[in-house]
Amino acid sequence: MTLDFAGRVAIVTGAGGGLGRQHALALAARGARVLVNDLGGAVDGSGSTASAAQAVVDEIRAAGGEALANNASVSDFDAVLAMVQQAIDAWGRVDILVNNAGILRDKSFAKMDMADFRLVVDVHLMGAAYCCRAVWPHMQAQNYGRIVMTTSSTGLYGNFGQANYGAAKLAQVGLMQTLAIEGAKYGIHVNALAPTAATRMTEGLMPEEVLAALKPEAVVPAMLVLAHESAPTRTILCAGAGSFEAAHITLTQGVYLGTGPDVPERLAAQLAQVTDRSGDMVPQSGAAQGKHEVERAMAAHRGS
Ligand code: NAI
Fold first, then answer.
1. 165 classed as catalytic
2. Is 295 exposed, middle or buried (0-12, 13-18, 19+ CB in 10 A)?
3. pLDDT one-digit tens code per residue, 136-153
4. What positions does the domain Ketoreductase occupy (predicted)?
5. ipTM of the predicted assembly exceeds 0.95
6. Cys-Cys with 289: which of 22, 27, 252, 283 at CB 3.0–4.6 Å?
7. Does residue 172 have its Cβ closer than 6 Å to ligand 1?
8. What percent of the chain has a predicted confidence (pLDDT) above 70?
C-alpha cells in the first residue's frame, strides 16, 4: 500500500526547519496541501522571522506541490485560530495536524527559572492544545482527522536538565489519550511521535558521529504512518536512525490488599509484587483502570 495524501490538507507547526520541514516536504511530495507554520525563532524560543516558513513553502512549490506559509506562534490562541482559518479559506478543510513546534530551555531543576518552565509548557503543551482545539470543530464536522503530537523520550523516560521540557512533552501524551477517546466517534485519530534526530535542537548534545546517523528524514515514515488514513489511534511511536518502536503506558497486575490499619506495612512488604511487570496491561481509559480496581474489591468482598 502506498501512503498517499492526495486531496488532504495538512498543517505542520514549527515546519521552518528540522523535523517539521521534513514532515512538510514529505506530506507535500505525497500529495497533501500543506500549511507550513513557523515562528522562525531561535532554539530557546527568542526572536522570530517570517522567512523560515516561507523558504519551506518555496521548496514545496518548486517541487510542484501546494503550500502556504504562516508565522503564528502556537502559544498564541488567536493567532492559531487565524492560522487554521487560513487553511480553511484556502482549501476548505484540515485533515491533518502535526504538532511539531518546540523550544528548549534546559537547566538542572535547581537552577531552572520558573519563567522558563512556563515558557516551555506554553509552547509545547498549550501550543499543542490550542492547535488541536482550533482544528477540532472542523475535523468533527467533516468526520475525519489525524493529529500527531510530538512527544519525546525525555517526556516518556526523563533526561537530566529537561524537567520543563519533559513535563510538557509527556503532557502531550496525556492530551493525546483523551482526544483519541473523544475523537473516535468522529473519525479523528490521535497519536504521538517520539523522534530522535540531529537538528539544531540536539546539536552539542550528542557526538558528531551519532548525529550523522540521526537524519531527521529517518523519523518521517513514523509521522506519515500516524497521519495517514490508515493510521492507528492512541499509539506512541518512537523513531530515530531507522529504528521504530512503540511506547506503552502499562499497568501491572498488582495486588489487592483491601483496607485496614496494616495496609501501609503490607504494601511496603509486597511492593515488588505490585510493581512486577509480568502480565502488564494497557487500560482502554482512565475510567477502565478505576473500574478494574473497584471490580477487584467487589470480588474480594464477595469471596469473604
Ligand atoms: P527545531 O528547533 O529545528 O524545530 C522546532 C521548530 O519549531 C523551529 O523551526 C522553531 O522556529 C519552531 N517553533 C518554536 N517555537 C514556536 C512557536 N511558538 N510557534 C511556532 N513555531 C515555533 O527542532 P527539531 O528537533 O526539529 O524539533 C521538532 C520537534 O521534535 C519539537 O517539538 C521537539 O521538541 C521534538 N523532538 C525533537 C527531538 C530531536 O531529537 N530532535 C527529540 C524529541 C522531540
1. yes
2. exposed
3. 999 999 999 999 999 999
4. 8-204
5. yes
6. 283
7. no
8. 100
